[in-house]
Amino acid sequence: MVAITATNSATPSPQAALGRARVEQARREADQAEANAQSLRSRADAAELEAQNSQERAREVAQRNRQSDPTYTPQLNASKSEVPQKTQEFLVNLYSASEQKFAASGNPLKTYPNAAPVRNTQGQATGRIVNLST
Questions:
Q1: What is the distance between the alpha carbons of residues 120 and 126, in angstroms, rounded to a whole number?
Q2: β 125-126/118-119 pair status
Q3: DSSP string across 24-83
Q4: d(Cα 19, Cα 13) in Å, to the nearest integer?
Q5: Interval 54-82: pLDDT, tens
Q6: Cα 113–117–122 angle (5° rounding)?
Q7: Half-sphere exposure (CA, 13 Å, Cβ side) for 100?
Q8: Do residues 118 and 126 touch, judged by C-beta distance below 8 A?
Q9: How far apart are CA 70 and CA 38, in angstroms?
Q10: Do 120 and 126 touch, CB atoms closer than 8 A?
Q11: Position 45 pLDDT exceeds 80
């Protein structure tokens, strides 16, 4: 006679247990990947916000620079000299009148072509320009 055996037993087969373990591992890895992706998204959003803030600050600085005078002429015109204008004019006139009389004419250095050169302790000629190119 043929014996009837149970085809479905109460204990799961090792292959089924291994399959379920792999599915659980894959779910954990997917959850971890999703958490990492969310973290990266939030960091990217923060970086985007910081970049927008920096660009806005750069636009504000550029706008302020366009409005200001780059030559500083208003500041120069607004400041008053410590020396009165009459005194400045007097000093300029005094300099103009006296500069010709105190100007040096010609070369103030005197040359003596017949002077004997001075020799240093190594016997080299010093005291006048020596042509070393020849």
A1: 7
A2: antiparallel
A3: HHHHHHHHHHHHHHHHHHHHHHHHHHHHHHHHHHHHHHHHHHHHS-TT-HHHHHHS--SS
A4: 10
A5: 999 999 988 887 766 666 666 666 556 67
A6: 160
A7: 3
A8: yes
A9: 48
A10: yes
A11: yes
Give residues with Cβ within 8 angstroms of 117, minimum separation 6: 125, 126, 127, 128, 130
Tally of CA atoms within 13 A in the half-sphere of 14 that contains its CB: 0
pTM over 0.85: no
Single-letter code of the amino acid located at 92: V
Instruction: Please list the residues that pair with 118 across neighbouring strands.
Output: 126
Task: Residue 84: count other Cβ atoms within 10 Å of its Cβ.
Answer: 10
| Residue whose tokens read 């040096």 | 104
CB 125 within 8 A of CB 119: yes
Considering only CA atoms, which of 79, 78, 95 is closest in space to residue 87? 95
